[in-house]
Amino acid sequence: MTDSSALPNRRQRLRAFVRLKLEARMLRMGVAVLLLGVLALGFGWWHRANAMEQVALGNGLAGVDPALAAAAKPVRQIRPTPMETLRRISRSMGFGRASHYGPGLEGNPTASGEAFNPRRLTAAHRTLPLGSRVRVINPTNGRSVVVRINDRGPFVKGRVIDLSTAAARRIGLMKQGVGRVELRLLINESV
Q: Pick from 29, 110, 148, 177: CA 20 to 30 A from residue 130's CA?
């Protein structure tokens, strides 16, 4: 007859079973984490080996593509996104309130000496040099317009720019009359 004290009882067998299942689960998780790490490192090495080297070329970027180098066309133009282009050619002046002035002042002389025409894309600003070009963006609808500063103003507290009727209409500011806009001073006049 066997000694009953040498055999594990039901509780001890259940504990051993649960411990083995937990160890197996932890082993599977460890292997999965290790495989993910190896895959990530492999992808990083592959990406570095196949990535194009980017260099500045004129107003854009160019990259040396290994696939094109074999075809005697080693340089490929990389087109920047519209937002990258906007950031490169302009400097943000922040947000402020804009208003518009229009037909009642048509023909009056502006600070630059020209007659005011509400059908042109012009604006008044207190400090920017006359002739500066500014992109005015309406954040509520995303529409924008490029205006030329040709007058001084606005002289109402809390407003940063006065737009001509045509400019206000382009960005959807006519109904409300006054609205919040973002101003970006254009550095490159090609846009």
A: 177
pLDDT single digits (tens) 131-168: 889 999 999 998 999 999 999 989 888 899 999 999 99
User: Could you give phi then psi for residue 46, rounded to 5 degrees?
Assistant: -65, -45
pLDDT for 110-133, tens place per residue?
A: 999 999 999 999 999 998 888 889
Q: Which residue has the tokens 């490169």?
A: 88
Integer Cα distance of 55 and 189 in angstroms? 23
75: which 2 tokens? 């340089």
Closest by Cα among 146, 153, 145 to 116: 153
Provide the total of helices (H) and of strands (E) in the chain, helices listed first: 4, 9
CA distance 98 to 182: 9
Has residue 5 got a pLDDT over 90?
no
Measured CA to CA, the distance from residue 130 to residue 151 in angstroms comes to 7
Q: ∠ CA(104), CA(110), CA(111), 5° rounding? A: 150
pLDDT band at 191 (very low <50, low <70, confident <90, very high): very low
* 3-class DSSP state of 119: coil
Decide: 122 and 105 in contact? Cβ < 8 Å: no
Q: What pLDDT was estimated at residue 63?
A: 54
- Do the beta carbons of residue 96 and residue 183 sit within 8 Å? yes
**What's CA 37's distance to the chain center, in Å?**
31
